[in-house]
Amino acid sequence: MPDARLAPRLHHRLAALVSGPGWRRTLILRRTASALLVLLALITAVAPAPGSTRTPVVVAAVDLAAGRTIQAADLALRRWPAELVPAGSVRDPTAARGRVLVGAARAGEPITDVRLVGAGLLPGGQAAAVPVRLADAAVAALLVPGRKVDVVTAGERSDQPVLLADDAEVLAVLPEDPHTRGRLVIVGMPRQIATRVAAASLADQVAITLRD
């Protein structure tokens, strides 16, 4: 049980502060005003603007690296004020699943259509997008979206390379990352070939040759 004498003591101290010297009353008023201003700022920051509507937006649930094939666990659905939603934002998580992320995304960042390549976005009836890391930066500098290429790897003999995919199409050339080796290129190709190319790019040295 609280001490019954506590309330009178608090009342006495409060009365002493209010009736004390002018500088003490001024200090109390300033502190109270500061606290009210901070509270008002917090309320303003979290409260939506009058008449503002909320729109569902797909955002990255975790930090995502460039070239990642997006899975369901990588995404989250948030409701943003309509006036703050970026143009081209993905509104349905199913529209982003299975797509390849062109650039890295931080957790909480909205996913937009220009950041994705994948089955639903590939031109020419292609069915899959494969990230291929090139060791030769000079070759990456020659690539632009839409360029036709062949994807090859080394064979048993140096003069007998293995053709993994022919007439594939460059979808995106990602910016150079100083923390990784080589440039990452997103290449579109038929799905039955994409699996083989993806496996080879993990185990072997993969190169891209330019087509006329």
Describe the structure.
By secondary structure, the chain is α+β, with helices and mostly antiparallel strands. Helix content is 26%, strand content 26%. It has a 5-stranded antiparallel sheet. Strand 6 and strand 7 form a beta hairpin. The longest helix is centred in the first third of the chain and has 25 residues, at 22-46. 23% of the residues are buried.
List the helices and strands and how they pair.
Layout: H1 6-18, H2 22-46, E1 54-60, E2 75-81, E3 100-101, E4 116-117, E5 128-134, H3 137-140, E6 148-153, E7 162-173, E8 183-189, H4 191-203, E9 206-210
Antiparallel strand pairs: 1-2, 3-4, 5-8, 6-7, 6-9, 7-8
Short description:
This protein has 212 residues and is α+β, with helices and mostly antiparallel strands.
The percent range for helix content is: 25-40%
Secondary-structure element order, as H and E?
A: HHEEEEEHEEEHE
**How would you sum up the global shape?**
elongated
Q: What structural category characterises the helix and strand content?
A: alpha+beta
Number of helical runs?
A: 4
Rg over CA atoms = 30 Å
How confident is the prediction overall: mean pLDDT? Answer: 76
The biggest beta sheet, please? 5 strands, antiparallel
